[in-house]
Amino acid sequence: MEKVIVVGGGPAGIMAALKASEKNEVILIERNNEIGKKLKLTGGGRCNITNNRDIDEMLQKVVTNKKFLYSAFYRFTNRDLLDYFSSKNLEYKVEYDQKVYTGSDKADDVIKTLLDDLKNKGVKILYNSKVSDLIVEEGKIKGVVINNIEVINGDKVIIATGGKSHPQTGSDGSMYDILEKYGHKIRPQYAALIPLVIKEDFMSKLQGISMKEVVMRAKVKKKKFEQMGDMIFTHFGISGPGVLKLSSYINKALENDDITLTLDFLSDKSREEIRNIIRSNPQKTVINNMKGLLPQNFLKQIISLCDLEEVKSAELKKKDENKLISMIKEMTITARETLTIKAAMVTSGGVSVKDINSSTLQSKIVKGLYLCGEVIDVDAETGGYNLQIAFSTGNLAGRLEE
Q1: Angle between helices 318-329 and 296-305 (to 10 degrees)
Q2: Using an 8 Å Cβ cutoff, are 239 and 345 in contact?
Q3: What CA–CA distance (Å, rounded) separates 8 from 29?
Q4: Residue 192 and residue 247: Cα distance in Å, rounded?
Q5: pTM of whole model > 0.90?
């Protein structure tokens, strides 16, 4: 029996500790006074455990380094994860877009289930303990240093310290410096699944308006990206599930330049169909003819932006009609930047996958050192995929295969 140290009590670290404990003595080191602090934030506090799609489809939702995750995803699938929770009597439900949530809508129930299992498997948890260094001798891990003072020796170490998003939960990126010191390449970190800051002044007039199933398009050099989802206009720009997904594909490019976005608020209708609705009753105002087509507060604002508040359909000029339809079918706005990484749901970037064996998640640089979860340069769209990455990579790392 070997002594295994797991650093980080988030979903990846917990799953790694549970798997490793099947054959080893395990110590889980957590810098907070509780485990799963960031897990509580997922799904708006409801905990979007995973997604119910087939694993092949799940992999297509991975934004960065999807091939690296093949072994992890197939050796511990979303079905395996849900079977695990079912075996612990945790109820779950599948909702819109195949998102899986706890039956109670409480992330605390997931954390309690995992904590109980850790206790049952004899995992020792050290709370309020921050790993300040690794102990590496002749290219092999020998243990860790916590709080700059105490040495804990171990045969294997699993790093699951997360990225830089939501640093108040403990994932402040400090482990990157330690790993870099021992030879690992650290890829630049970017905010992923993050609202976008928009240049145009008229955004402020739309603040607070929510829109359903908007098609959002962006072009970065020769690559085109498209996402559909709900969105909301904010005081700084745009947010919402669709925007968050799109942000993960354009976040790196935003470091160097602004990006033009086009928004289609009625993707199920052609320009001609909208034109016919606008002209349906010549004696009514444009906004009356359009009533029910889109949220009324949105219609009021875009008609105001086009200076068409009291204009009747019969009086509507062709150029104004085209301008209005364009506002609906291809509103053009400019993304200037994302919000800071501290506000991101996920970190894009981290330990280079080239330094990690994808079949075992053991470091290629330091023998006996394993990495899992958000600390690695992998990220996915919103919808439970990033949590599945955490659980799957945690399970694979916890196998401690050479």
Answers
A1: 130
A2: no
A3: 6
A4: 6
A5: yes
User: How many other β-carbons are positioned within 10 Å of the β-carbon of residue 367?
Assistant: 14
User: Which distant-in-sequence residues (6+ apart) come within 8 Å of 147 by Cβ?
Assistant: 129, 130, 132
> At 395, is the secondary structure helix, strand, or coil?
helix
Residue 167 pLDDT: 86
Distance between CA atoms of residues 380 and 13, nearest Å:
19
Ordered by start, the domain boundaries in the chain are 3-190+345-397, 196-338
Is the distance from CB of 72 to CB of 1 less than 8 angstroms?
no
151/131 Cα distance (integer angstroms)? 10
**pLDDT tier at 380, thresholds 50, 70, 90:** very high
Provide the pLDDT for residue 72: 98
For the domain covering 3-190+345-397, report its CATH number: 3.50.50.60
Predicted confidence (pLDDT) at residue 288 exceeds the cutoff of 90: yes
CA–CA separation, 307 and 316 (whole Å):
11
The per-residue pLDDT for 44 is: 80
Dig out the tokens for 238 from the structure. Answer: 């745009």
Q: What average pLDDT score do residues 95-111 get?
A: 94
CA dist 157 and 375 (Å) reads: 14
